[in-house]
Specification:
The protein is α/β, with parallel strands linked by helices. Among the domains are: 220 residues, Spore Coat Polysaccharide Biosynthesis Protein SpsA, Chain A, CATH 3.90.550.10; 106 residues, UDP N-Acetylglucosamine Acyltransferase, domain 1 (3 Solenoid). It is built from ten helices and 41 strands. The strands form eight sheets. A nine-stranded parallel β-sheet has the order 14-17-20-23-26-29-32-35-38, with no helix packed on it. It has a seven-stranded mixed β-sheet with strand order 5-4-1-6-10-7-11, sandwiched between helices.
Length: 470
């Protein structure tokens, strides 16, 4: 794909979405829809993408980054006007493929086929058309008696006969740059919207004796435009199905696709199993042989090989090989968990590192901590990391044992192979190999129950506490 440029038009606000967010930035399966269009260009090996921006231009730049060239369309006066603003970016290229930021289901294979047809035929332009059940609101493709393209008529300007045509202009088209830029200044805004329409280029080219080719997609959903929230839901469902099909084809078992949501950016290794009611959100990476679910929510996390997670939430964390998590665990952002770690029932981790073989089996909070290898964290253990003003670090060295219901008051360091007695509140460092006990000594009061209950009986009879009476 040499000497061709992809141009995505994304300046319009998209008022039918009824949103403060620009239409092309609404996410579909974890990505803004315009990013999906950009992905299709990348898959088609079309280099040097450019985007025409207008409303919320800065937000589009933030979403797509610096790998894209941008041109500003300050006034939205139609698609031909948008391409005219991008003319300086097209200089030196033979062809330009014009796409739209609200057609998120287009694929790289289709774009490759379009460009191949365009170049092999020698056409001045190649238009992507589609036959749809309901063409309302869309430009119609008008053909002559020989079946060749004669005109493109916008819905608002269509006659009664033209409105009955079901072949529509998707507006995705490939042009020879020199001919396109020669035609655009000749376009007039004599239409119901008072705008400069890019499809008006096609009859100009035909009148001058140039050929215009058309291509249709194998799946009409590839050209689905998103204009409303209902359209967004339809596109989401279609892309979700594509993602799940692709994942299963790669060697992953998805037990119940209807209840499984996996974002477009996720990567899952072969022989992994995804159980029902699981959501894998954002840039997640799962190794081979993992078992995730049921009822798991992974967010922007990396899992090694043979990891098991069930009935749990894992956010922005890195998990090593053969780790087990759950049920009902919550890993908040910032954790790094080494191999063979167990994180069990109702355990919560945040911004902590756990060494290999460490166990946090149940009912514990580990926050802002560095925990070594082969450490046992007993039930009810809390790293007390916040003093009311700032967070502090807890360090537990290799082989240490933290007894149940212990509080580690950070900053504190429990040394290698040290023990913390159950029920202790530790507010100083414990040396390696030592036992730390921080609790009141147990006291036994013989006969206390009989004395206490006897005093209460006397109080009920005499209206006073006999034990304290003078």
């Amino acid at each position: 794909m040499e000497n061709i440029r992809g141009l995505i038009l994304a300046a319009g606000q998209g008022t039918r979405m009824k949103s403060d967010l620009l239409k092309v930035l609404h996410p579909i399966m974890g990505k803004p829809m315009i990013a999906l269009v950009l992905d299709a260009l990348t898959a088609a090996e079309i280099p040097d993408p450019a985007v025409v921006v207008g409303f919320q231009a800065d937000r589009v730049r933030d979403a797509l980054g610096d790998a894209v060239d941008y041109v500003l369309q300050e006034q939205q006066r139609g698609t031909a006007h948008a391409v005219a603003q991008a003319a300086p970016l097209l200089e030196g290229y033979d062809d330009v493929l014009v796409l739209y930021g609200d057609v998120p289901l287009v694929t790289g294979d289709l774009l490759k086929r379009m460009v191949h047809r365009h170049r092999s035929s020698g056409a001045a332009a190649t238009l992507l058309t589609a036959v749809v059940e309901d063409p309302s609101g869309l430009g119609r493709v008008v053909r002559d008696d020989s079946g060749e393209l004669a005109a493109i008529v916008e819905d608002a300007d269509a006659s009664h006969a033209e409105s009955a045509i079901r072949e529509i202009n998707t507006a995705i088209a490939c042009f020879k740059v020199d001919l396109l830029l020669d035609c655009i200044p000749r376009i007039a805004a004599d239409n119901a919207q008072g705008e400069y329409y890019l499809p008006d280029v096609f009859p100009m080219l035909l009148e001058r004796g140039f050929s215009v080719e058309t291509v249709q997609p194998p799946d009409v959903n590839e050209v689905l435009g998103v204009n409303t929230r209902a359209d967004l839901a339809v596109a989401t469902g279609i892309l979700r199905g594509r993602i799940l099909d692709s994942i299963m084809e790669s060697g992953v078992t998805v037990v119940d696709p209807p209840s499984t949501w996996i974002d477009a950016a996720a990567e899952i290794g072969r022989d992994s199993v995804i159980l029902p009611n699981t959501t894998i959100e954002g840039r997640c990476s799962l190794g081979s042989g993992c078992r995730v679910g049921p009822s798991v929510h992974l967010v922007a996390s990396t899992l090694g090989d043979a990891v098991t997670v069930w009935h749990s939430v894992v956010e922005d964390s890195i998990i090593g090989d053969r780790v087990t998590i759950g049920p009902y665990a919550h890993l908040r952002p910032g954790n790094e968990v080494a191999e063979n770690v167990k994180i069990g029932n109702f355990a919560e981790l945040k911004n902590s590192r756990l060494g290999a073989g460490t166990k946090v089996p149940h009912h514990s909070y580990i926050g802002d901590a560095e925990v070594g290898s082969n450490v046992n964290i007993g039930a009810g253990v809390v790293t007390v990391n916040y003093d009311g003003w700032q967070k502090h670090l807890t360090v537990v060295d290799d082989g240490a044992f933290i007894g149940c219901n212990s509080n580690l008051l950070a900053p504190v360091n429990v040394g290698e192979e040290a023990f913390v007695a159950a029920g202790s509140t530790v507010d100083c460092d414990i040396p390696p190999g030592a036992l730390g006990i921080a609790r009141g000594r147990m006291e036994i009061k013989e006969g206390w129950v009989e004395r206490k209950t006897g005093a209460r009986r006397a109080e009920r009879v005499f209206g006073r506490d006999e034990e304290n009476a003078e």
